[in-house]
Amino acid sequence: EFGAYGEARPGLGLSAQLRGLRSSGVVAAMGAPQARLTLRLGAALRPAHGRWLVLQRFEGERERMVGTGVSRTLRWQGNANLRLGLDDQLSLFHGVKVSDRLWQGGRVRGAVESLALEWRRTLERCWDIGARGGLKVAERGARVESLLGVSAGRRLGRGLWLQGGFNVRGYGDRDFPDAGVTAAGPFLRFSWGFDEEDLRHALLR
């Protein structure tokens, strides 16, 4: 595994990571990938005196299973955060995933797109409230899922928040786990507020 992070210029961080995995014998025979190669590229833009933050990540994965061919997955994720004032902020998530994978002896090709928008307001130092909506489109529009919910949050420490709320509509999202989407009904989750060190770890994750 190789990884690097650097600041190209003030307010712009770049990262790259290459990870390889090879298994053999019993582990491979049990269905684990025989070989997997993953490339991750990231960029974070945060002006020193700006009101916004943009985080972009690209991931490409190539995987080979025992006795079968090669599967490939490309995933792009973008996060943007805009402060509207002292107490309000908007967050936007946009993700696209394209895959060519093996499934039950055949090949399955598909694309998934996810979009989510969240508004949050700080009530006092350790509390906030918010509302969120989103869409996930798959199989060329044949499958559409939606998200609509509200939440309240409590700050537990530096950059760490615990949020609880209720989704009128929702769905599980394994394609984009960083989107923080949850199923319909009550939910509880942790979320992060980024500083420079947090950005470094997020890009290299």
Produce the secondary structure layout.
Blueprint: E1 2-9, E2 12-22, H1 26-29, E3 35-45, E4 52-64, E5 70-83, E6 88-103, E7 106-124, E8 127-138, E9 143-157, E10 160-169, E11 185-192, H2 196-204
Antiparallel strand pairs: 1-2, 2-3, 3-4, 4-5, 5-6, 6-7, 7-8, 8-9, 9-10, 10-11
- Pattern of helices and strands: EEHEEEEEEEEEH
Compute the gyration radius: what is it? 19 Å
Unreliable parts? none
Largest sheet: 11 strands, antiparallel
SSE-based structural type: mainly beta
Shape: globular
- Strand line-up in the sheet with most strands: 1-2-3-4-5-6-7-8-9-10-11
CATH topology value: Porin
- Average pLDDT rating: 84
Overview of this structure, please?
By secondary structure, the chain is mostly beta strands. It has one domain (2-204): Porin (Beta Barrel), CATH 2.40.160. The protein has 2 helices and 11 strands, in the order E-E-H-E-E-E-E-E-E-E-E-E-H. An 11-stranded antiparallel sheet has the order 1-2-3-4-5-6-7-8-9-10-11, with helices on one face.
What are the key terms here?
eleven-stranded antiparallel β-sheet, 205 residues, 2 helices
Report a brief summary of the structure.
With 205 residues, the protein is mainly β. The protein has helices at 26-29, 196-204, and strands spanning 2-9, 12-22, 35-45, 52-64, 70-83, 88-103, 106-124, 127-138, 143-157, 160-169, 185-192. The chain has one domain (2-204): Porin (Beta Barrel).
